[in-house]
Write a structure and sequence with these properties.
Elements lengths: L10 H6 L4 H13 L1 H8 L31 E2 L1 H5 L4 H4 L3 E6 L8 E4 H17 L7 E5 L4 H13 L2 E4 L6 H10 L4 E5 L2 E3 L2 E3 L1 H9 L6 E5 L13 E3 H6 L10 E2 L3 E7 L7 E6 L1 H14 L7 E4 L6 H13 L3 E5 L10 H9 L3 E4 L1 H9 L3 H4 L8 E5 L5 H11 L6 E4 L33 E4 L6 E2 L3 E7 L9 E2 L3 H9 L6 E9 L5 E6 L3 E4 L2 E4 H9 L4 E11 L3 E10 L7 H14 L8 E4 L13 H8 L16 H8 L4
Parallel strand pairs: 2-15, 4-5, 4-6, 5-12, 6-9, 9-10, 14-15, 14-16, 16-17, 17-18, 28-29
Antiparallel strand pairs: 1-11, 2-3, 7-8, 12-13, 13-22, 19-20, 19-21, 21-23, 23-24, 25-26, 27-28
Helix pairs in contact: 2-3, 6-7, 8-9, 11-12, 14-16
The structure holds 5'-O-[(S)-butoxy(hydroxy)phosphoryl]adenosine.
Length: 646
């Protein structure tokens, strides 16, 4: 049904936007028919030190496999985000920082200050022995210093690896180990919704297993934290004597910029590696066109810098465009459910970009929280991270945007660096729930998952991308073979997204969600294998199977089936223990919503767990379990059905 609801481009948008429908069609055609010419021009939005002569030299074929853009060009992304804006906008605002508690002073940081802070910290990193190519682990809350740390790394050519400050010491430890970084940047504590997060204590716990040379600690809440002699130093002491000038390192376009760990369907989280030139072009360009960004507009992406959305659309994209980017430390429901909209009013935010899970949670609290704020400054809304259901879309449009603001539902991934399928507000008629049309240079296709055959017209299947784009990830850090196997082996010659997708008669794309063993909880991506492996590390657990289940607010919840070791009594206490165990092992976002004891799991005769059936039981969709003829023991299913908790 929702497919037939169409919100046409508002007239003012069609007239005034950077990209209207005609320009979109023209530019898109050129981007796929003459990609080299197209990208040669678009890449001029970045200041190159040495201009590139080569454009796209990527190949998805196994024999000749590589992803490479603008390879012989050189640049520095920190200089693109800072120095080049100084002649005209040194005194203009770069970052507005709104703290967790509205009564704490905010911070307004100009481009000139951000430049000085970045240079000082870059010099401090150098003084602490960090060199080009070194990996720097960042475990910081949403404070301006997080952006400073990223830009300082980019300035000296160090590779940052940000670990979301909600992750556990175990998760942090694994990520430090994987990229062999010997320096960690953290804070005494983080602050979210009035609650303190013991960041330094978590770092100390992580470092018991993986010692590093240096920890630089930011004084944030002022908590008294123990400092390890010879290893830990204070951020402010380190920058005190440093010069506010630091020459940006000349980086090759394909030199690494950052690593960001993300979950896959198997194994440990992968270190997604992005490089400098293509990523710079992609984030700056998508930020400008998708959000129709114009100078001096206040732009707010509510994502944490621990996720790729924070990397691309809180820091790099907006700053490369000289934008005013708002950084929010807090949460949508603290001190109350009006918080987002109060911040919008406080700074006259024009563009607001958030995840559906936050919107659904706010929607549930009623319209009053929204309606008592003004929100007249808003002109554009964005959605990211998971499918937005039409009901939440309509609420966002009608209640938050007063029916006035287009919504850009942006589909993309950690791997893609930036937006891939998204409406452009002046060009695309909107269908609630559809990410709509490909961005310039993006060539999506839908294949039959069984045969691999490319489907035409209106159809549904697996979403692939048939050619490279500048923002694409370049490798899995330390495991190039895994990069190829994960994304390019399934449908030879194409990038496999892991998502299912439908295309309608108008050519609109509707992402239907992951078709691999990845679940999306509140827009956070998790591998079921990761949670299973945390569970089986518990000495009372023999086997575990984890699946996603539908969840009103989170999109998907986590449903865990656990077989305990022989002789163990499956008590309520143990059930709670196991839930807390996962929470501690991975982090609060991985906390199972349901944990069911399963004396045995449904398996095929060859011993493969039939997840399809587990998903059905979890969804309480038990009327039709599908083909169960290959089950080794059909009674197992009966038992699970009869003992569903709740
Ligand atoms: C997965 C990627 C996008 C950056 C933040 C998440 C899902 C993302 C949408 C959307 C439907 C979406 C996909 C994708 N997803 N955006 N607009 N509509 N699904 O990045 O953690 O790498 O997760 O998020 O399933 O594969 P990520």
């Amino acid at each position: 049904m929702s497919e037939h609801v169409v919100h046409p481009v508002p007239e003012e948008w069609a007239k005034n936007a950077l990209i209207d429908a005609e320009t979109y069609a023209e530019k898109y055609r050129r981007s796929v028919e003459d990609p080299d010419g197209f990208w040669r021009e678009e890449a001029q939005r970045i200041d190159w030190i040495k201009p590139f002569t080569k454009v796209n030299e990527s190949s998805f074929d196994e024999d000749d496999f590589r992803v490479r853009w603008f390879e012989d060009g050189t640049l520095n992304l920190s200089a693109n985000c800072l120095d080049r804006h100084l002649p005209e906008k040194a005194q203009d605002v770069a970052i507005i920082w709104e703290p967790d508690d509205p009564n704490t002073p905010n911070r307004i940081i100009t481009y000139s200050q951000l430049h000085a802070d970045t240079c000082r910290f870059a010099n401090a990193l150098k003084a602490n022995g960090v060199k080009k190519g070194d990996r720097v682990t960042i475990y910081l809350p949403m404070v301006p210093e997080a952006a400073v740390a990223m830009l300082a790394c980019a300035r000296i050519g160090a590779v940052h690896s940000i670990v979301f400050a909600g992750f556990s010491p175990e998760a942090l430890c694994g990520r430090i180990q994987d990229c062999q970084s010997d320096i960690v940047l953290t804070a005494d504590e983080g602050l979210r919704g009035g609650k303190k997060v013991p960041l330094k204590a978590n770092v100390d716990a992580a470092l018991e297993k993986v010692p590093v040379r240096r920890v630089i600690v930011l004084h944030h809440t002022g908590a008294d934290v123990p400092m390890v002699e010879g290893r830990d130093v204070w951020w402010y002491d380190e920058i005190e004597e440093q010069n506010a000038q630091c020459e940006p390192e000349e980086m090759g376009a394909e030199d690494p910029l950052f690593i960001l760990y993300t979950s896959g369907s198997t194994g440990k989280p992968k270190g997604v590696l992005h490089t400098t030139g293509g990523y710079a072009v992609w984030t700056a360009m998508t930020h400008e066109y998708t959000f129709d960004y114009r100078p001096n507009q206040v732009y707010w992406c509510a994502a944490d810098i621990g996720w790729v959305t924070g990397h691309s659309y809180v820091v790099y994209g907006p700053l490369a465009n000289g934008a005013i980017t708002l950084m929010f430390e807090g949460v949508p429901n603290y001190p109350d459910f009006s918080r987002f909209w109060q911040v919008v009013d406080k700074y006259q935010v024009e563009i607001f970009y958030a995840a559906p899970t936050a919107l659904r949670a706010l929607m549930r609290e009623g319209d009053e929280w929204v309606k008592k704020t003004c929100r007249k400054s808003l002109r554009l809304l964005g959605s990211v991270g998971e499918p937005i259901n039409p009901e939440a879309w309509e609420w966002y449009h009608k209640v938050v945007g007063d029916g006035r603001c287009p919504i850009v539902d942006t589909w993309w991934q950690t791997e893609t660096g930036g937006h891939m399928i998204t409406p452009l507000p002046g060009a695309t008629d909107l269908k609630p729930g559809s990410a709509s049309m490909p961005f310039f240079g993006v060539q999506p296709a839908i294949v039959d998952p069984a045969s691999g055959e490319v489907l035409e017209g209106a159809c549904e299947g697996a979403l692939i991308i048939t050619d490279s784009w500048p923002g694409q990830m370049r490798t899995v850090y330390g495991d190039h073979e895994r990069f190829f196997q994960t994304y390019f082996s399934q449908y030879p010659g194409s990038y496999f997204t892991g998502d299912g997708c439908r295309r309608d008669e108008d050519g609109y794309y509707w992402i239907t969600g992951r078709i691999d063993d990845v679940i999306n909880v509140s827009g956070h991506r998790m591998g079921t294998a990761e949670i299973e492996s945390a569970l089986v590390e518990h000495d009372k657990v023999a086997e575990a199977a984890v699946v996603g289940m539908p969840h009103d607010i989170k999109g998907q919840g986590i449903y865990a089936y656990v077989t305990t070791t022989a002789g163990t009594e499956d008590t309520e206490e143990l059930r709670q223990d196991l839930i807390q165990w996962v929470r501690r092992e991975i982090g609060p976002i991985a906390t199972p919503d349901v944990l069911q004891f399963a004396p045995s799991l449904p398996k095929t005769r060859s011993g493969k767990i039939m997840r399809r059936i587990l998903r059905k039981i979890a969804a309480n969709d038990t009327g039709n379990l599908g083909d169960t003829s290959t089950l080794a023991d059909p009674d197992v299913v009966e038992h699970l059905l009869a003992n569903r908790p709740g």
